[in-house]
Amino acid sequence: MTIHEPLTELPASPTKPGTPASGGGLAIRGLHKVLGGRTIIDNLDLSVKEGELVSLLGPSGCGKTTTLRMIAGFLEPDSGSIEVEGQEVSHLGAENRPSAMVFQNYALWPHMTVAKNVGFPLKLRKMSKAEIKDRVEAVLELVSLLHHRDSKPARISGGEQQRVALARALVQEPKLLLLDEPLSNLDAKLRVKVREDIRKIQQELGITTVIVTHDQEEAMSMSDRIAVMNAGRIEQYSTPEALYARPETEFVATFIGSMNRIEGSLNNGLIATGPDILGIRPEDVILADAPFAGAVPATVERVVPRGHFQEVYVRRADAQLRSFVSGEPMRPGQQLYAGIRKAMTFRDGRLVAEAGASL
Amino acid sequence: MAVTTASRTRRPLTLGSIVRGAVVGLFVVLMVVFILGPLLWLGVRAFAGNWTFPNLLPDDWTLRWWQVVVNDGALGIAVQNSLFFAPLTVLVSAIICLPAAYAFARFDFPGRRFFLISLFATNAFPKMGLFVTLAALFYALNLMNTVLGILVVHVLGTVVFMTWIPAAAFAAVPRNLEEAARDAGASTLRVFASVTLPMALPGIIVAAVMSFLASFDEAQGTYLVGAPAFMTMPTQMYSLVLNYPTQVAAVFSILLAIPSVALMLAAHKHILGGQLAEGFQIK
To answer: Rounded distance, CA A282 to CA A324, Å?
Structure first.
C-alpha cells in the first residue's frame, strides 16, 4: 500500500466561462464596470444554458450583486454585452428586459394586496381583468399562497412575502429569473424549505435562473453550476461537486467548504515546511486509535460538537489539523493516530497539484 | 399633589419620585391653565350675555352674538374668502412644490443643499418686514388688492411645509420598491403614479393640512396686500376685536377653529391608518 502517490499535474480547466450558450439562456461577454474609480466588475464572461440555475457566489463586495443589477438593467455596464435568448439587452432599460427579479428584501409594495402586487406586471401589459385574475390565482396556487390573496404584505410572514415576490416575478413568464440573496432574510429552518421550493418550481417551469448568494451551502444545494466570484472576476465556474472536489484556486478551496490551510508541502504523509500552501479538507484527516499506514501519533486538543459530527482539533508533530469525525465522542488529551488522505497544493493562489494517499 | 399621594401607595417615597410627581403635576396644571382654560373661556364667552366680575359663570346666556355674526354680510364674505383662498393656496403650492420636493429627494444636483436651506428664508425674517417690502414690489406690479397678490403671499407661507415634508416622504420610499415596479415593466411616470406617490401620500397629506391651516390663519400679509378689498376670516378678526363686543370675537374664533379642527381630525385618521403606521419593515 502506497501512502503517498506522486504529485499529478492537473490538466487545464475544462469549463471555460463565456462560451456562447447554444440557443437560449444568458450570455455575458466582456462585462466591465468601474464605480467611484474602483473596478467592480473586471471583464467578466458568463454563460448560462437555457433552463439552468446558476449561482453567483462570493463574499460581500465581490461584485456579484453589481453583476445581477447589470443583468436586470438597473445599472449600466461600462462595456460588454448581455444577451438573453440571443437578444442583446444591454441597451434596454429594466422595464423592457425579458428578465424578472426577486429582490433581497422582496420589495413588495406595502399599499397593495398580495394579489395586486402579483397582478401589477400583468396590469402594465394591458391584460383584461379576468385574465389577470386567472393568472394571479394560478401563480399564487403554485407558491401555495392563494389564501393570502387579499392580505397586505405587512400582514404575512417573511417566508410568505418571499413567495409573493417569487410569484410576482414568475407571473411575468420571464426568459430569465434573477434572485438577489433570496433566502438571507429567512431563519435557518425556513431557508432550507424555501430553497427547495425555489429549486422545484424552477425545474418545473424550466426557467433560466441566476441567483446571487454569499452562502455556499445555499449555492451548492440549488445550483446546476456555480460561479465563484472574487474581486470582480469569476474564480471558477463549475458544478457544485467539481468546485468542492477540484477547486482551481486557493480562494475557491477556502470559500467552498472547510479547509486546513498550512504553509508547506506533503512528503510521505508528513508536512514539511515550504513556500507552497497545502489545503486539506477536514474529512481527509483520518483519525484512528491504532497506527495505520501514513499515520503519525497525535493528541486531541479541542472537540467542538456539531450535531451529527464532531469537529476535532488534533496536534501532530508537524502541524495542527482539524478533522470531522462521527461516532464515539472524543475528549481533549486523547492520544491517537492521524493520517492525511488527500491534500491540494497551491502555488501563487492556483492549484498546482493534488496528492492522494490510498489509506 | 394627587400624583405624589398615589405613588406612595405603590412604592417607597423617594426624593426622585416626589420631584418627578411634582414636575408632572406642574405640567398638567400649566396645560390646563394656558391651553384648556382659554378655550373653555372662549366657549363660555360666545354664549354669554352679561358677565360681571366675581361670578364664575355668566349672569345670563344668549345666542345673540351668533346672530350678529351670521347676519353680518362682511363676516359672511370673510368666511367665503377664506374658504376660497385656503384650498386654492394648497393646490397652487402643491403644483409648484411637489415636483421640487421630488427633485430634492431623488436627484443630487449642484446647490441642492443651498436651495433646500434657503426655503427657510421666508421664515427667517420678521414677517411684517418681509410683507412691507413685498407690498412695495406689488405696487409696482399692480398686484395690490388682487387675488393673485394674496395668493402669492399665502403660497409663500406654505413653501417650506410643501417642500420639506414631501421631500422627506419621497426620500423615505425605498428605491428598490421603485426598481421592482420598473422591473415589472412600468415606465418612469407609471412608477411614480403607482408606487412613489401612494407611498409618500401620508407625508403629502400632512403637508397639505399644514399648508391649509397656514393659509387659513394668515393675517398680516393678507391684511397688507388685500384689505379692504379682500377680507379673510383672520383679517376680519382684527376689525371685530376693535369694533364689536368681545363676545362676537369669541364666536368668530370658534368659527375660525372649526375647519382647522375638522381637518386635523380627518388627517389624523388617515395618517395613523396609513401604511407608514403599519410598521412594515423595509431595510
So the answer is: 5
Residue A120: its pLDDT value, please?
96
Dihedral sign computed on CA atoms, order B129, B134, B139, B144: negative
**Which positions in chain A touch B278 (Cβ < 8 Å)?**
110, 152, 154
Q: Report the 10 Å Cβ neighbour count for A37.
A: 5
Q: How far is A120 from chain B (nearest CA, A)?
A: 7
Tell me the shortest Cα–Cα distance from A128 to chain B, in angstroms. 17
Assign a CATH topology to domain B73-278: MetI-like fold (1.10.3720)
For residue B147, what is its C-alpha cell? Answer: 387675488
Residues of chain A in contact with residue B175, where contact means CB-CB under 8 angstroms, are none
Structural domain that includes position A338: 260-356
Strand ranges across the sheet with A335-340: A285-288, A335-340, A296-305, A310-316, A320-325
Of B180, B190, B275, nearest to A124 by CB-CB distance is: B190
Interface probe for A, chosen from B183, B188, B192, B275 (most Cβ of A below 10 Å), is: B183
Binary contact (A153, B280; C-beta < 8 A) = yes
Of B179, B194, B281, the CB nearest to A107: B179
Residue A142 identity (one-letter amino acid): L
Residue A124, domain CATH: 3.40.50.300
Comparing B56 with A34, which gets the higher pLDDT? A34
Task: Tally C-beta pairs within 8 A across A and B.
Answer: 75
Amino acid B4: pLDDT: 46
Regarding beta strands A320-325 and A296-305, do their DSSP bridges make them parallel or antiparallel, or are they unpaired?
Answer: unpaired
Q: ipTM for the complex?
A: 0.80
Pair A288, A352 in one domain: yes
* A67-123 tens-digit pLDDT: 999 999 999 999 999 999 989 999 999 999 999 999 999 999 999 999 999 999 999
